[in-house]
Amino acid sequence: MDIQSIQLQGIGVFDSGIGGLTVANAIHSHLPNESIYYFGDTDRIPYGTKPASIILQYCLEVSQFLLEQSAKVIVVACNTATAAALPQLRATWPEIPFIGMEPAVKPAVKATRSGKIGVLATQTTFSSPRYQSLLERFAKPYQCFEDPCIGLVELIEAGRWSNTETERLLRSIIEPMLAEGVDTLVLGCTHYPFVEPLIKKIAGPTTEIINPAPAIARRLAQILTEHNWLNQTAQPGKKKYWVSGNKDALQKALKGLDLPLNNIYRFQAQ
Ligand code: DGL
Question: Fewest CB within 10 angstroms: 10, 79, 257, 270, which?
């Protein structure tokens, strides 16, 4: 395929549900001319409590679908899916750049003054060799306090971003970390930025909260530039969304973001 045709192709982005929209939103702000093809696997959410082998199968299916929509790059906008599947996705499609997400432990190490970091992510992310290696490489002299935030993804997916039940759950997770002297919190699941205002309210103004989505958008821009794959036309890119289950959560989430709210399709497995 010639380079101009590749430039016109879109960015595939996927997650178990609405979480990856926080990354798609950062991509849209940074690269407004790029088309985005988003897949939310809302029928099979949550990923974060399932075994890695099952998530790998889901990721292969979803990536295959996004490539059929002619994605030129795939952003795995899910820490859990990255932990479970990134090397296998890269090995299956060696010609396609795959960008993964992992808890931002490295920037947290730079930001912390107390040497104590709180990491919020899913159980499957914490259990993965990828996360263990991240700690080995960057967090050795620091203390990391981890919480798998049981039930939080479901509350966020249900649109309960600021109600008392969500606040109670977040307090039970964050307050013990603050009591230990944590001054930096890593949002290690792409769903959690939806409750960032609540996290800020609980953690207070002196706690640093790290959301890696803007860094992922910058990394994507770098990869597209290196390949000469940036869309060179001045037209805003098209946005298309597919969900394998319920559309409501996606619709509500899109209203709260800058992303255009149109072209939502129901994906039917063959
Ligand atoms: N958004 C996903 C992540 O970044 C996890 C959500 C889920 O458990 O399905 O890890």
Answer: 270
